[in-house]
Write a structure and sequence with these properties.
CATH topology of the largest domain: Histidine-containing Protein, Chain: A
CATH architecture of the largest domain: 2-Layer Sandwich
Radius of gyration: 23 Å
Shape: elongated
Strand order of the largest sheet: 1-2-3
Number of domains: 2
Oligomer: single chain
Structural class: alpha+beta
Helix content: 55-70%
Length: 124
């Protein structure tokens, strides 16, 4: 009888552990899909390139970042996108939560820099 109880307890423990593992894997996959680190490694437009740009470029990036951070309706992903301003172009990269955020961020960029071309590479 004792052996049956131990066996039953062991089976129950293993089944709950496997259920936890399946849930954990699902969560991790969602995180990996949102993470764009691998894409950034091959990126030709970098923040380092912007550092060589003009003070005006840095100011445009600063203004756009301030507008993004002031918008409480945007997700944490949207607040953390990459903004690179070089010359007459602004490049927006990174994951956002949905199409609406992507469009809203592009509109904010157009409002900050009306005379610049916007490359919207945001993903959702």
């Amino acid at each position: 009888m004792k052996e049956k109880k131990l066996l039953l307890l062991l089976v129950f423990s293993l089944s709950s552990f496997s259920a936890f593992s399946a849930t954990s894997k699902t969560v991790n996959r969602e995180v990996v899909e949102k993470d764009n680190t691998a894409l950034n490694r091959n990126n030709q437009v970098t923040a380092e390139a912007q550092a060589k740009g003009s003070k005006a470029d840095v100011e445009v990036t600063r203004q756009l970042r301030a507008k993004l951070m002031a918008d409480d309706q945007l997700s944490t992903n949207a607040h953390n996108i990459k903004i690179i301003t070089i010359g007459k172009t602004i490049t927006l990269e990174g994951p956002v939560d949905n199409r609406e955020e992507k469009s809203k961020i592009e509109a904010l960029a157009r409002g900050v820099a009306t005379n610049k071309k916007i490359y919207n590479k945001l993903t959702y």
